[in-house]
Design brief:
This protein is of the alpha+beta class. It is 48% helix and 24% strand.
């Protein structure tokens, strides 16, 4: 605390500026990360809304297509029955001919039935076989009887078991005009089921569910799951979830963060109006892993920039403080040199100092008067060149690393005079113990 008080006001201002900068960087990082997450979630929300809207529209189209497909199947079977009836008018239809015609027309079954319900010909089984006496054929009976009684021109039903086929069939019974009775025409239900699967909502849900980043796709009503993407076997009932119950009552999409398994996902839910009496919810869960990865990378970049900027500012602050300290030291050194120079120039004794290499570094006015040489001609030169006789005992002190307290020495001046001088020396040792400076006072 005392050091902080002792700092110059400019340093305090620099420290305060650095603290403000750190605060600004912290706010910047927080705002950037928050805004980045908000924008990413908006993108996810838009993507999820587009997916659920696409799935709902495709589902409605698929339902319509399936209904039209079923009507087209009925129309084709009617035309096929009329064609068989027309062929029978020209020639009797044998089982072998019916088999050939069934293959050419792409149907699984052709059966000719008399008014009493007995079979006259079929592409599957020769002979007379009444459908009334062959196992559990109640649906077949209900399908054929109204035509035999002339109540309907034709009737149709799906997934009907017959004594002439091992699998169930989509059957149409049409009246015969050549003779009293009916013509039974059928498609394989298994083949039609495969067509419906390829065109159906379930296949579409699985294809979307297989896309990267999609956690699940579920079509669910109040009774349970209607269809779902792979791996989904159980979901929370609509009645137990207020969010789902509210979504079931409105047409617009709703979104939320939701935990599915051990993963947090972003779920979008929208009602699919297949049947007004039985509304269905389309639920799509999007994994937030990609968002989290992008956000983490963005956060690392922002932190890297912020830390780099902060370190740069800190280095600049240190340089400024160092320069300021250097200027203070330089000023103090100038003052000391000024004071020292004044003292040296105003004492009566000659003062000469050399560095560790023997070069003269100090040469005061008294020395100039005593030795008759100006300072400009002496400073920086080796003292052995200026005073070859070592009359100032500088070489001796440096060699012996021992000061001389008082010795009278003979000095020969450049003008030829011979003088007796009293010499004392001292020395300053370096950190390593060597001679750093030798001072001679004459």
């Amino acid at each position: 605390m005392k050091r902080l008080k002792d700092l110059p006001s400019r340093s305090k201002l620099l420290l305060a500026g650095l603290a403000v900068l750190a605060l600004i960087l912290t706010i910047f990082v927080y705002i950037e990360v928050t805004q980045s997450r908000k924008e990413l979630l908006e993108n996810v929300r838009a993507e999820a809304g587009m997916l659920v809207e696409t799935l709902n529209r495709a589902s409605e189209t698929t339902i319509t297509a399936n209904a039209e497909l079923e009507q087209a199947l009925v129309d084709r079977l009617i035309v096929t029955a009329q064609l068989i009836d027309h062929m029978e008018q020209h020639a009797p239809l044998t089982p072998s001919r019916l088999a050939a015609e069934a293959q050419e027309l792409g149907v699984a079954l052709i059966v000719l039935v008399n008014a009493d319900g007995s079979v006259t010909a079929t592409n599957r089984l020769a002979g007379d076989l009444s459908f009334r006496s062959s196992g559990d054929t109640s649906r077949l009976h209900d399908l054929v009887e109204p035509v035999l009684r002339d109540e309907f021109v034709w009737t149709a039903d799906a997934s009907v078991s017959t004594p002439w086929s091992e699998d169930t069939l989509f059957l149409l019974t049409h009246e015969r005009r050549t003779a009293a009775g009916a013509i039974i025409i059928g498609y394989s239900s298994a083949e039609l089921l495969e067509v419906r699967k390829r065109l159906g909502i379930g296949q579409l849900a699985q294809e979307i569910g297989d896309l990267q980043g999609i956690a699940y796709v579920v079509l669910q009503d109040e009774e349970g799951i209607l269809t779902a993407s792979r791996g989904v076997s159980e979901m929370r009932p609509i009645g137990d979830d207020d969010f789902l119950a509210a979504a079931l009552q409105q047409d617009s999409a709703r979104t939320r963060f939701h935990v599915y398994g051990d993963e947090q996902i972003f779920e979008v839910v929208q009602r699919l109006n297949i049947d007004s009496e039985r509304p269905v919810l389309t639920r799509i869960g999007l994994s937030l892993e990609r968002v989290q990865n992008i956000q983490q990378r963005s956060m690392r970049r922002v932190l890297f920039i912020a830390v780099g900027f902060f370190i740069t500012a800190l280095i600049l602050l240190v340089l400024l403080l160092t320069r300021q300290r250097y200027m203070l030291l330089a000023e103090e050194h100038r003052k000391v040199r000024t004071y020292t120079g004044l003292v040296l120039d105003n004492i009566a004794d000659a003062v000469i100092a050399t560095d560790s290499a023997g070069s003269i570094t100090v040469y005061n006015k008294a020395a100039q008067q005593l030795f008759g040489q100006p300072a400009a001609a002496v400073l920086g030169k080796l003292h052995e060149d200026v005073f070859p006789a070592d009359s100032l005992l500088l070489t001796r002190t440096h060699r012996d690393s021992s000061p001389v307290h008082y010795i009278e020495s003979v000095l020969h001046t450049p003008d030829g005079d011979r003088r007796i001088i009293a010499v004392s020396t001292s020395l300053i040792l370096s950190d390593r113990g060597g001679v750093d400076t030798v001072v001679s006072i004459a």
